[in-house]
Design brief:
It is built from 16 helices and 16 strands. Strands 2-6-7-10-1-11-12-13-14 form a 9-stranded mixed β-sheet. It has a 3-stranded antiparallel β-sheet with strand order 5-4-15, with no helix packed on it. Strands 3-16 form a two-stranded antiparallel ribbon. It is α+β, with helices and mostly antiparallel strands. Strand 6 and strand 7 form a beta hairpin.
Length: 492
């Protein structure tokens, strides 16, 4: 890289509360008719008074603690002034110089290396209304305003400019979303707009102490969009610097269809917002006992769970990362593993097999159907039974795959499916031996090749045994018996 890339991220995440930040309106606005979940407070009517949502405060504290932040016991709200049409009051109630949490750490991992990213602050504010634009051209161009979102409890998490690549930025966002989901403060769904990211990026010479002109990128609604927008902006700014052209400090929007950023407006400075203390809300004093209580109730965080899965189940780092990436998947993994009391050795074997099923067949099923694990047609107990039957030799892997497919359709247990479809694995030595005799008689050329030293033929012959038994023969027993039979022929 010719220039050093400097990236800082501002993440806005909607909080999971029943009501809005400063009024009693329902916070569940998604999918409702526009402008139906509003009140005089949402609309910013004269004479209305906001009241702080206590639950939102608790969720913000939980977030700060999960990010190893210092919690400010004496915080306050401020007015952030700007004249956009999505802001009903002409200002936003936010936090400026005394955020609820500051000075945290979030670790990211890229290319096998772990890097701490400093968290500057976590502060609370209210969301704004939603603007929708129609670009028909001329008189057919218009904008629509939906006030339902105005006042939704919002939390802004601001990183220090410690990120040095789009890869690190993506890893940071994935890790942050995972933490928010684990502690239950937000759904953190980017596609639905309740987890939104603005990226600040600049380029500088590696020897420079001062940062370059900062460009803010907006309108990114997926991790892919953030990654691609940063990649584009690096190329754009590099070209300007190579040509000795000035890089404007501005706000740019990401146009995903074209894969470019476009200039929107000049970058605001702090002074432009004319912050001052919110006169309708007193300073917020947070008791230390409340902080302790929230800390004690925090669930196991993703990085801790990952370390435990690696230690307890001997999962590879890759498998552990895949499992813990989703709180729901991680909980499902444990619900299956806790079906039966297992020895330490069994935990290792069952854990690896279960991870393979989840990362492979189950993930594929969820992707194809749009389901989540809670809506699967079979129970965790059924999946455990399937894995146990394969490990103990009751089912072959091939039969297990067939039974799994039927489980997804019928919801029946593996035992029920195996019995009704005649899929129980054949482990009877005499039955397998008879099939082996037939395979040897019908494949004289292959047997001859094996006896002449072509050991690779063994796999073909085992395949013929499995074919004759419709996949029901125990493959390990079949292989052992076939080898014994062939060796006996070789010794004649």
């Amino acid at each position: 890289m010719k220039y050093e890339v400097v990236i800082g991220l501002e993440v806005h995440s909607q909080l999971l509360t029943v009501s809005k930040m400063f009024c009693s309106c329902n916070s569940q606005y998604q999918g409702l008719e526009p402008n139906t979940v509003v009140c005089p407070v949402c609309m910013g009517m004269p004479g209305t008074l906001p009241v702080v949502n206590a639950k939102a405060v608790e969720l913000a504290i939980a977030t700060g603690l999960a990010l190893q932040c210092e919690i400010d016991q004496g915080t306050k709200f401020d007015r952030k002034n700007y004249p956009y049409p999505d802001l009903m009051k002409g200002y936003q109630i936010s936090q400026y110089d005394k955020p609820i949490a500051r000075c945290g750490i979030l670790e990211v991992k890229v290319d096998g290396l772990t890097k701490p990213i400093r968290i500057n602050r976590v502060h609370m504010e209210e969301d704004v209304a939603k603007l929708s634009h129609s670009q028909g051209g001329g008189e057919s161009s218009y904008s629509l305003l939906d006030i339902n979102r105005a006042g939704i409890p919002l939390m802004e998490i601001v990183s220090e400019p410690d990120l040095r690549s789009p890869e690190e930025a993506r890893s940071y966002l994935i890790s942050l979303r995972s933490i928010l989901q684990y502690i239950g403060v937000s759904t953190a769904n980017m596609e639905e707009g309740n987890f939104r990211c603005d990226a600040n990026i600049s380029l500088k010479e590696f020897s420079d102490k001062e940062l370059g002109s900062k460009v803010e990128i907006k309108n990114m609604n997926s991790f892919k969009a953030v990654y691609e927008a940063l990649q584009y902006e690096i190329k754009r700014q590099t070209k300007l610097k190579d040509s000795n052209e000035r890089i404007m400090s501005e706000t740019r929007g990401w146009v995903e269809e074209q894969g470019v950023t476009v200039s929107q407006r000049s970058k605001e400075e702090i002074a432009d917002y004319r912050y001052f203390p919110e006169p309708d809300l007193p300073p917020l004093e947070i008791d230390s006992t409340l902080i302790t209580s929230i800390k004690d109730k925090l669930p196991e965080l993703p990085n801790i769970k990952k370390a435990r899965f690696i230690s307890e189940y001997k999962l590879s780092e890759y498998d552990a990362d895949m499992i813990i990436a989703s709180k729901q998947i991680a909980e499902y993994f444990e619900s299956v593993m806790l079906t039966k009391v297992l020895t330490e050795d069994q935990k290792v074997g069952y854990g690896k097999n279960l991870a393979n099923w989840i990362i492979g067949d189950i993930s594929k099923l969820l992707d194809e159907t749009g389901q989540d694990v809670s809506s699967l047609n079979f129970t965790p107990e059924h999946l455990f039974e399937l894995i146990e039957s394969i490990i103990t030799g009751k089912f072959s892997n091939a039969i297990g795959k067939r039974i799994f497919v039927e489980m997804t359709k019928s919801g029946k247990s593996p035992g029920e499916i195996a019995e009704s479809h005649g899929l129980v694995q054949i482990s009877d030595v005499s039955l397998i031996a008879k099939v082996i005799d037939d395979v040897i008689d019908n494949n004289v050329k292959s047997v001859s090749d094996y006896l002449e030293g072509n050991l690779n033929v063994l796999r073909f012959l085992v395949g013929q045994v499995m074919k004759e038994t419709k996949g029901k023969a125990n493959p390990q027993k079949a292989t052992e018996l076939l080898q014994e039979k062939l060796e006996s022929l070789n010794n004649r």
